[in-house]
Amino acid sequence: MTNGGWTLVANVLGTNAISSANYTNGLGSTDYLPLSEWIHKVSDFNTYTNPAMRIDMGTVKDYFIPNGVSFSTMVTTSPTNNFKWTNSLSKPFIIPSYYTHHLGGSMNLWPANNVYADSRNYLSFWGANNGTTLGGCCHETYSDVAGWGKPFKMWIKEGVVNNIDSSLIARWAFDEGAGTSAYDLAGNNHGTLYNGPIWATKANCVTGGCLTFDNSNDYVNAGTGINLVNKSFSIAVWAKRASSGTWDFIIGQGPNGYSTGLHVGFRDGNTFTFAFYSNDLDTPVTYTDTNWHHWVCTYDSVSRARIIYRDGVVVASGTASANYQGTGVMQIGLRQADGLLPFHGSLDDIRIYNKVLSPTEVVNVYNER
How far is residue 285's CA from residue 208's CA, in Å, rounded to a whole number? Predict the structure, then answer.
């Protein structure tokens, strides 16, 4: 499909919900759906400072914005000033894929604090659910001020993609491609990159982009918002080691101490471990290859059963001597609070669930690649 412009996909998930808006560049990209799969083409249009568009997912089936129509607040039908922030057809504006919210009822999106030919050269969107502000996003890709005031094209796709899983409490897809932030697609546990993990391109990753760690001191700090104490949980990750025979820990939390130090990854003997500190589950076999593999660790706080899956297959199981008790910063690419034993290789699509994934669910996550 060649459209001379760009496409914006608003993935409608289930009933009264929208999630994970993303874009494709119609000028050259092949990562888009064929034209036959789109419900309705929204024509070229110009918009203005502080518009808002209301979409009632329960009633609206087609989305059509005729040329020249603008949106402002929910209580007015025309903008208070006419500063245009529209895009040239060759410069796609992006609502990033990390901007994800489960919305019930209606959704409002509007540009925030954008000024005509703004020197910041980016556009911001804020989202609200029935009047409750959810947060904002922006993407610094719009830098051609000569394109300001020109029309752009938008498509909105209607259809069920995946049901939103409320048990998914954190997900870092690492698709940002640049910068020092790793956004949490499921919650607010956004990560900050330290000491230079390298963004890798799609060709070297599993799903979209990924992060590469050099086994020195680079890591991602995902904050203190994830509490797994005395709880069932599952951790899923795509991992590719750069070499074998080294300590390579993928994710960790908590201090050194019995059942307080979560650490998941490889020991230097090449076993994979799902460990709480002196309360650990290791695989009975070793793994020395440097290919991508999908690892899932599940823990049941009632039975204290632990399971490790590799590429959808159980490779270790056992019973913990106590529930996990650690708290603190969740660190990606390091063992735990001591900051030791960093990962060497690439990581992609890390997820944390607040439940025990079933074998079928583990396979389903694996097959999402």
Answer: 30
Residue 184 is given by DSSP the state: B
Contact 55, 106 (CB under 8 A): yes
pLDDT at 185 (0 to 100): 78
β-pairing verdict for 233-241 and 293-299? antiparallel
pTM for this structure?
Answer: 0.61
Contact 235, 276 (CB under 8 A): no
Residue 106 CA to residue 271 CA, distance in Å, equals 49
Burial class (CB within 10 angstroms; exposed 0-12, middle 13-18, buried 19+) of 230: exposed
Q: How far apart are CA 173 and CA 8, in angstroms?
A: 19
What are the residues whose beta carbons fall under 8 Å from the beta carbon of 152, sequence distance 6 or more? 5, 6, 44, 45, 86, 87, 88, 89, 93
Q: What is the pLDDT of residues 60-77, one digit of tens each?
A: 222 222 222 222 222 222
In whole angstroms, what is the distance from residue 204 CA to residue 135 CA?
A: 32
CB contact set of 164 (below 8 Å; sequence gap of 6+): 13, 14, 17, 19, 102
What are the angstrom distances between the C-alpha of 98 and each of 141, 183, 305, 366?
15, 6, 33, 20
User: And the tokens for 95?
Assistant: 């609502």
pLDDT digits (tens, 9 = 90+) for 110-124: 333 333 333 333 333
Alpha-carbon Rg for the chain in angstroms: 23
Q: Where residue 337 falls among pLDDT bands split at 50, 70, 90?
A: low
Terminal-to-terminal C-alpha distance of the chain: 24
Task: Compute the Cα dihedral for 139, 141, 142, 143 and give only its sign.
Answer: positive
Give span(s): CATH 2.60.120.200, the chain: 168-366
Give the pair of three-digit tokens for residue 56: 């009632």
Q: What is the CATH number of domain 168-366?
A: 2.60.120.200
Burial of 132 from C-beta contacts in 10 A (0-12 / 13-18 / 19+): exposed
DSSP H or E stretch at residue 363: helix 359-366
